[in-house]
Write a structure and sequence with these properties.
Low-confidence stretches: 260-264
Order of helices and strands: HEHEHHEHEEHEHEHEHEHEHHH
Number of strands: 10
Strand order of the largest sheet: 7-6-5-8-9-10
Number of helices: 13
Helix content: 40-55%
Largest sheet: 6 strands, parallel
Mean pLDDT: 89
Oligomer: single chain
Shape: globular
Distance between the termini: 21 Å
Length: 338
């Protein structure tokens, strides 16, 4: 259930999105739903939670929430990135209200899906409803990488939202200074301009290509043509893009912090883990660039691990099974395909 197609109400004029002050907005949104749903799924925990609760009450159908982040940890990272003290205070108030809305919605859901283990920890803190861990259902159309010989020049890839203090290839770009490689950055966000300046200041303006947002189908089709995948994030998550790169069999470098122990990543996953600084990325990258057998073993291990733990068909079947159970419990004929 998305609210991107209707103007968001002012958080100030509605005193922090209080439900009794959102009645006209909620009614206008629900009036746009022309087909009665059998089940509602909330994607993420934002203002859409309040609309979903209203839709659940109106249509009397099961409600499922999918949790895609550790709300407490990620809000702290965002707040830490602000230099303005007043903005920090405002964001703390916003974060507290989001948490209150999330708790309200999660406690009224029939089921909760967490797409990473970090989300399970968060949900268990704030909700009585016990979550299920079902990793992101990614594309089935990811072709395996078969050739681990380097391109000329080597082609590097990173994909993800660009959010100050949370995620974005800040140290990755610094690590590339003077290297004969190209890096394609797919994604957008408020960190973009800073990253563009970093590419210029590190003498990599012609080597780092900012491609903006691309359709997922295009990304997974292009993945086998890259040599190495790099990912940098402070968020507690198991990134969808990392899962796709693993399934492709790309050698992958990620920054290591607690997010990966929470995500159940272990020594057999094939990921090359580094400290979150440019020198660590640089040394790991030079090691992979200089050793074809290392690239192949890292990529193969990553693909084997992902096929066992993140298989798209298995995740789809698990999700479909959950939907069928909820529909059966609600005495609604199950029409879920899969």
């Amino acid at each position: 259930l998305s609210v991107t197609w209707i103007k968001r109400p002012s958080i100030i004029l509605t005193l922090g999105w209080r439900q009794f002050l959102l009645r006209s907005w909620t009614k206008a949104a629900l009036d746009r739903i022309t087909v009665k749903p059998d089940l509602i799924r909330i994607y993420g925990l934002r203002l859409n939670c309040l609309l979903a609760l209203a839709a659940k009450e109106k249509f009397q159908v099961p409600l499922v929430a999918s949790v895609h982040e550790h709300g407490d940890r990620n809000r702290k990272l965002e707040i830490r990135s602000f230099g303005n003290p007043l903005k920090k205070i405002a964001w703390r108030l916003y974060a507290a209200r989001l948490k209150s809305i999330s708790r309200l919605a999660l406690n009224r859901c029939e089921s909760i899906i967490c797409v990473y283990k970090a989300g399970v920890e968060y949900v268990n803190r704030i909700s009585r409803t016990r979550p299920e861990l079902i990793y992101n259902c990614v594309s089935r159309e990811i072709a395996p990488k078969e050739n681990y010989r380097l391109s000329d020049p080597p082609r590097l890839l990173t994909v993800g939202n660009l959010i100050p203090g949370v995620k974005g290839p800040v140290n990755v770009i610094k690590a590339l200074r003077g290297m004969d490689v190209t890096l394609d950055v797919i994604g957008d966000g408020p960190l973009l301009e800073s990253l563009q300046h970093a590419a210029v200041s590190n003498g990599m303006a012609r080597r780092v290509n900012f491609l903006g947002c691309k359709p997922n189908e295009w990304i997974v089709k292009q993945m086998p043509g890259y040599d190495i995948y790099l990912f940098e994030s402070q968020a507690w998550e198991m990134s969808k893009s990392v899962i796709e790169a693993m399934l492709c069999g790309l050698p992958i470098i990620v920054n290591q912090h607690r997010q990966y122990s929470i995500a159940a990543i272990d020594k057999a996953d094939g990921l090359v883990k580094v400290d979150n600084n440019s020198e660590s990325y640089r040394q790991a990258l030079l090691g992979l660039l200089g050793d074809e057998s290392l690239r192949k073993s890292a990529g193969t291990d990553a693909r084997n691990y992902a096929s066992k733990h993140f298989d798209p068909v298995a995740m789809e079947l698990k999700t479909a099974g959950l939907y069928r159970k909820l529909l059966a419990d609600a005495n609604t004929p199950a029409t879920v395909q899969g």
